[in-house]
Structures are given as C-alpha cells and as structure tokens.
Amino acid sequence: MQTITVRGSPILRYMFSAAAVVIIVIGLKYASDVVAPIFFATTLAILFTPALRWLEQKRLPTGLALLVMVLALGGFILLMIIILTFSLEQLALRLPVYEELLLQRIDAFTAALGSIGIDVQDALNAFVVNTTALTKAAINATLLVLGNSVLVVLFLFLLFLMLLESKSIATKFQRRQQTGNNLVIQLGTYTKHIQKQYRIQTLSNLLSAVAITAVLLLFRVDFAILWGFLAFILGYIPNVGLIIAILPAIIIAFILYGLGTALAILAMVIILNAAMDNAVTPRIMGKGLNLPILLVFLSFLWWSWVFGFVGALLAIPATLLVKTLLQGRQETHFLVVLLSGQGNSEETIPIPANRRDENNTVEEDSDSPETRRTTLRADATDSTVHEE
C-alpha cells in the first residue's frame, strides 16, 4: 500500500497565518494592561543603555550608575507629574469661565444664523455644556492616574531590573551574532535604529516645544507652559502628536481672542510640524525612518487601539519591530517591501543558510525521477477511477 503526501495549498497556509495573527492581536489587546508597560519599559531600557555604559566608562560602579539613571528618570517623571497636576487643577478652575465666554461667542454666531432662518442655538449650547462636562471628567481621571504613585514606583523598579540585566543580555546577543544568527543580527540593527531615532526625536521635540511655547506666550494664551510640555511629550506620536497637543490651546485662543487668532496659531503649528517631520528631523537623521507616511499614521491608530496611550507613543518602535521580525524570510519579502518608505521590489532579504539548504533540498526532491514516477502512478490511478 502506497501513501502519498500532498502539500497544503498556499491559500491554506495564508489562512492559518491570518488566524495566528488574529489570535496574537486579541491576546495583546486582552493583556494590554500588562504587555504595554513591559514594552514601554523595554524601550526605555534600550534607549538608556548607552547612557549607562557611558557612566560606567567614567569609572562609576555599575550599581551607582544604575542609581543615577533611575533617580534622574524618577526626577523627570516627578517633575512631569507636578507640572501636569498643578496646571490641570488650574485649568479645571478656569473651565466655568471658558464655558461662559464660549457661550457668548456662540450667541453672536447663532444670532447671525438666525437672521437667515437657521436656528442652532439649543444644539450648540447643549454641545458646549456636554463638552465642558467631558473635559472636567477627563481632567479628574488624569489627575487620578498622576496621583497613583504605586504605579510609578513599580514601573521604575521594572526599568531598574531591565537596566541591571542589559549588560548580560548584550553579551549573549554578541555571542549569537558571532554564530551568524540572522534574527539576532536584525534585532541588533533594530536596537541601534531605535536609539538613534529617539535621540534625534528628543532634540526635535525640545525645539518644537520651545517654539510652540514662545508662540503661545506671544499671543498670551493661558497655560502656555502646559501646552509646550504636552507638545514635547506628544511629539513622540508621529505626524499628529503636535497637532493633538496644541488643539486645547487653539480652542482657548478662540474663546479668548476670536477665530483669527486661533487660525493664526493653528497655521503656525501646522507649518512647524511639517517642517520638523519632513525636513529638519530627516535631515539630521540622514536616512529617516524609511516608513510611508500613510503607514506611520495607520500604525498610530492601530497601536493606540491595542495598547492605548502607550501604544500611541510607541507606534514607531512597535511597527519597526514587526518589520524586523518579518525580515529574513522570503515568504514575507513582499510585506517588508510594503512597510518600507522607498521600497524596492528587487530588494534582497537575507535568508539563513539552513533555510536556503532546506529550500534547495525540497526543489531537488520534487525534480527527482522517483518523484516524477510516483506522480505519474498517482495520475494513472486517478484516471482509472474517473473512467470507472
């Protein structure tokens, strides 16, 4: 009795791969409260490892260098919490004033529309009241999160442990790189790329935050320092971070000074954002991210849905990690090209030697005389059954 093994069709393999991807995404979404902080801490550990090595080169003991790093990061987080808490509390106190001024502007607008027979007074008033209530609830929720010191301590402890193990992990990676492990080499390249990107992105965000704060102070917009600080933090969100950070300031400018001032500030921020994202930052970085603008925006939406606010901040590292994991296999070559900003269809993806040998063995086996004879016998059997 002869047994014939039939290979699965490519469509079936793609269906199983899609099902696996769906399961992974659902798992990440369900465990986002745990996975997102771990991924955030891992990214920070990758970013701060060069600074830790620099401190060690200055003859600081490893323990003391770690303590300096954690205290510096903890001090920055504490400063951020103090600035945000104080500013948000003041903003909450000013909300009734802003609501009253906005209702006055709406009254003038609806009066002009009423003269031509359009009545939207009640709808706009209800919208303003509901928006104010939602803003107050969001401020209270943010203050509650900022006041949870236990989460901050746990996060810093996790980061401390990762930095402590970073030297051992780097040594293991170097040993595997010497053996020619393709995945380890690509992860090393990914790590260097992330470190360079965020170093330049931090400088870019700092320049943008200073420029935005200066513009808001020039137009005498309330809480200019708060909006500048948010511009620095949200600037890590690609393409839309600065716009999101400045929207509250634009609304306040409209409430206080009218539509002209608000549009002027919006135009200046859009020009600044476009200049930093498309001219200044890529020029400093050299090659840039090599990601399409559409993919950058979609990755922001996707990872925001999966991991929340942390996913929005880490959309680029997460997307680059997926791209790194897809490299090195011929089956995912097309996906890697799609994820590249200046994709070249002729780009060669390095494949490990064992994978190439396996592919060659399969091709040789499929062309052997024994395989052809087996195929002919199977076809003859099928023809006989069909005739009967």
Structure description:
The protein has 388 residues and is an all-alpha fold. The chain has a domain at 190-288. The chain has 15 helices and no strands. The radius of gyration is 28 Å and the shape is globular. Mean pLDDT is 75; it is low at 343-388.
Quaternary structure type: single chain
The helix-and-strand class reads mainly alpha
Instruction: List low-pLDDT spans.
Output: 343-388
The percent of residues in helical segments reads over 70%
Principal-axes geometry comes out as globular
Radius of gyration over C-alpha positions, nearest whole angstrom: 28 Å
Order of helices and strands: HHHHHHHHHHHHHHH
Proportion of residues in extended strands: under 5%
Give me the count of strands.
0
Helical stretch tally: 15
The span between the termini is 21 Å
Summarize the main sheet.
none
Task: Give the rounded overall mean pLDDT.
Answer: 75
Keyphrases for this structure?
388 residues; mainly alpha; 82% helix; globular
